[in-house]
Design goal:
Pyrv/PenolPyrv_kinase-like_dom, globular, binds sodium ion, binds 3-methyl-2-oxobutanoic acid, alpha/beta, 11 helices, single chain, TIM Barrel, 3-methyl-2-oxobutanoate hydroxymethyltransferase, pantothenate biosynthesis, 8-stranded parallel barrel, Pyrv_kinase-like_dom_sf
């Protein structure tokens, strides 16, 4: 594929082969993800994973634009989505449009993602009718961590109806897909059955129309948090720390650099 998958193509995957999604924040990681996945998300998780913030609340438009541009340079066939950061869209549909349009114009992403259910439906429809494809995000919405009282499973028991209504409101407002974060598996299945657009799960069970993870989490590169829904497909953090310790030891013992890493005064240009 030479051209990127479109948001409409992702939408058309409803009920079909699951949509494989990962985050990316840099050009080299975007190239790796682009080779195998269908959708790449420049998540505001970048603030925690790469910038050491304690939550996603301090992430700015400038950070999303910088990382969005870097990722765009590495994406040729996946659908590229960039997160609207906290404070950039909640005030009004107009504010959301202004910032979403800026993200699209500056990063060349194909869609934006925002957090929130029924109360964001009007904004989603405002953006979609003006040419900005939107991905929704309900259940555990990390930008609301202070209001939710932590990173807890959402939608257990009676609360399931609220989360289901949130997802349905976004689908009805024109979102092309909805992320379901940290829900009971049965609720993930129920929402997937009930809404017309793909559900992309992260800790929402195996029956969603697709899955997403933070790439640094699944590679074992980011260990500040270890949510139960993260499967470690690699242990890159462990490998990197062993390699760095080995390097430091070789420098101190003068085993590195060896002759093959050194230059003679002549020849061997
Ligand atoms: O910011 C992020 O990485 C996300 C996904 C994990 C859904 O929003
Ligand atoms: Na996010």
């Amino acid at each position: 594929r030479q051209i990127r998958l479109t948001p409409s193509a992702i939408r058309a995957r409803k009920g079909g082969t699951p949509v494989a999604c990962l985050t990316a924040y840099t050009t080299p990681m975007a190239k790796l993800v682009d080779a195998s996945c269908d959708l790449i998300l420049v998540g505001d998780s970048v603030g925690m994973v790469l910038h050491g913030l304690a939550s996603t609340i301090g992430v700015t438009m400038e950070m999303m634009i910088l990382h969005g541009k870097a990722v765009a340079r590495g994406v040729s066939h996946s659908c590229l989505v960039v997160d609207l950061p906290f404070g950039s869209y909640e005030e009004s549909p107009e504010q959301a449009f202004r910032n979403a349009a800026r993200l699209m114009a500056e990063t060349e992403c194909q869609a934006v993602k925002l957090e929130g259910g029924q109360h964001m439906a009007e904004t989603v429809s405002y953006l979609v009718r003006r040419g900005i494809p939107v991905m929704g995000h309900v259940g555990l919405t990390p930008q609301s961590v202070n209001a939710l009282g932590g990173y807890k499973v959402q939608g257990r028991g009676e609360d399931g109806d609220r989360v289901a209504a949130d997802a349905a409101a976004l689908a009805d407002a024109g979102a092309f897909a909805v992320v379901l974060e940290k829900l009971p598996e049965s609720l993930g299945a129920r929402i997937t059955r009930d809404i017309a657009v793909p559900t992309i799960g992260i800790g929402a069970g195996v029956l969603c129309d697709g899955q997403v993870l933070v790439v640094d989490d699944m590679l074992g590169m980011f260990s500040d948090f270890r949510p139960k829904f993260v499967k470690r497909f690699a242990e890159q953090g462990r490998e990197a720390s062993a390699a760095i310790a080995f390097y430091a030891e070789e420098v101190r013992s003068r085993r590195f650099p060896a002759p093959e890493h050194s230059f003679a005064d002549e020849g061997n240009l």
